[in-house]
Specification:
485 residues, 5-stranded mixed sheet
Length: 485
């Protein structure tokens, strides 16, 4: 009995051990399967994390593009609409508690009685008298009405034969009917100032002349072409004047010519501005501008590296730089760009104070101190740039830091020489007329129209800058007399 019992116990033990081996094998197999599942899950997690990072970076890139507007880039205000706000509503000025409009002490521009009487005495205005009441009383008070009298005028030109019976007809009267200098001057000024199409200019002048002028769009184009041709000598005189200036501001903007992108570049000083038609902003295109090839002074512009091949020195527009600094602050949250903006503004304020005192540069020790602060901020920026952040924002930030360091002397040239402005805003303002025309007329159909517009705009804007009468001086050009010497 005992032997059988032991044998039975042994068999049970063996059976249990066999089961344990089977369970252990199943557990081992299950463990391997679980490990494979864990490995697959870990690989999937890594893949999803990588995909998530890519999506975050792309989202940051797209957000940075969407957030671009006229406040933090060189984009025009018209592009602000895509960010959800109406165009031209951004204003970087700090709000004050003052009411809108002219402030206390502001000199008004209302035409006074004394000014009108002086115009009458000088013969600049035709004087007429209209009486109200009984003139026999001898007592009266005077009021003036300033108006404009527009009427069609036909002048008959009688050319008599000489002793030999020959008629010596001047060139301007070869046709039986020609338009006078007043109509031509008004048409060309409207073409430049009014940003109107030729047919609308013709319609407006015809209406002003009680529909008796018979002016056509082709006639208006002919007037503009004639003025552009007559203006060549005046434009050459202006370019010579630019060459004599130490500092010239320049900028360029896009226009459309026959459906293709072209450019208009301007060169601006206090008393003159010259516009040039260009196919591109490349070095080869710039070399075709005779003024640039001869210029030996300082060019101030918005970081156009192609322009560094011309002139002897270069100033960078710091207003554009401040926009890039603001954009960097918005995208990265880093402090260095805020500090750099504050430093640039502080430099400009101190510069203005010294200019008011009649100084033309900073003392050497102050310059060294400013330059050290400038480089210290760049060093801080490079440290912040190494911190974790979105790849696209860090890439743009690094490029901005490199630019600040490489072109430090150009950004700070306004400190060393007070004749160099802090920005090129004058040049930008001179280009606003071009953008208005692009919006209204949609560009030009031919290269000749592109060049003609630049010539006319050069004359009109320079006359305005010098406070010279537009109509009278444009009339002189039509009569062959240079308006600008």
């Amino acid at each position: 009995m005992g032997g059988n019992y032991e044998k039975s116990m042994y068999n049970q033990l063996m059976e249990i051990m066999t089961r344990l081996d089977s369970v252990e094998q199943d557990l081992h197999t299950e463990k391997i399967e679980h490990k494979n599942d864990v490995d697959r899950l870990n690989a999937r997690i890594v893949s999803l994390e990588h995909e998530n990072q890519l999506l975050k970076d792309d989202n940051a890139r797209l957000r940075s593009i969407i957030n671009n507007d006229s406040s933090n880039t060189s984009l025009p205000p018209s592009t602000d609409q895509k960010g959800g706000k109406p165009a031209n509503t951004y204003n970087s000025r700090q709000h004050t508690e003052r009411k809108a409009g002219g402030q206390k002490g502001h000199k008004g521009t209302t035409l006074t009685k004394a000014e009108v009487e002086e115009k009458i005495r000088s013969g600049k205005c035709r004087h007429e008298i209209r009486e109200i009441g009984d003139p026999s009383s001898r007592k009266y008070v005077t009021k003036y009405v300033v108006d404009l009298d527009a009427a069609s005028l036909v002048t008959e030109i009688r050319i008599y034969a000489d002793k030999n019976g020959k008629f010596n007809i001047p060139d301007e009267y070869q046709s039986d009917v020609v338009y006078g200098a007043n109509v031509k001057a008004l048409a060309t000024v409207l073409y430049s100032e009014g940003v109107m199409s030729n047919d609308r200019i013709a319609a407006f002048l015809n209406a002003a002349g009680n529909d008796e002028l018979g002016l056509s769009a082709g006639s208006v184009y002919g007037f503009c072409k004639k003025l552009a041709g007559n203006a060549e000598n005046s434009i050459q005189n202006l370019e010579e004047e630019l060459l004599n200036h130490e500092v010239v501001l320049t900028d360029a903007t896009t226009v459309t010519v026959n459906g293709e992108q072209n450019y208009i570049r301007n060169f601006s000083i206090e008393k003159a501005v010259v516009y040039r038609a260009m196919k591109s902003k490349s070095i080869d295109a710039l070399k075709k501008i005779d003024f640039l090839e001869k210029f030996s002074g300082i060019l101030v512009h918005d970081h156009e590296t192609a322009l560094y091949h011309f002139g002897t020195d270069h100033g960078e527009c710091n207003v554009h730089l401040i926009r890039y600094l603001r954009k960097n602050t918005e995208e990265t949250g880093h402090k260095w760009s805020v500090e750099m903006k504050a430093l640039l503004c502080e430099m400009n304020r101190e510069r203005k104070k010294r200019m008011d005192l009649g100084e033309n540069s900073f003392p050497e020790e102050i310059l060294c101190d400013y330059e050290k602060k400038y480089m210290d901020i760049i060093a801080s920026g490079r440290k912040e740039n190494k911190q974790p952040g979105h790849r696209y924002a860090k890439k743009d930030e690094k490029a901005l830091l490199n630019r600040l360091e490489k072109y430090m002397n150009n950004h700070l040239l306004f400190l060393h020489d007070f004749s160099v402005p802090f920005d090129d805003n004058m040049s930008e303002r001179d280009l606003r007329k071009v953008k208005n025309r692009q919006k209204m007329a949609g560009g030009f159909r031919k290269d000749s129209g592109h060049e003609m517009y630049c010539a006319i705009l050069t004359i009109i804007e320079t006359l305005k800058r010098r406070n010279m009468g537009l109509i009278e001086n444009v009339k002189k050009l039509f009569m062959g007399t240079p308006a600008i010497f």
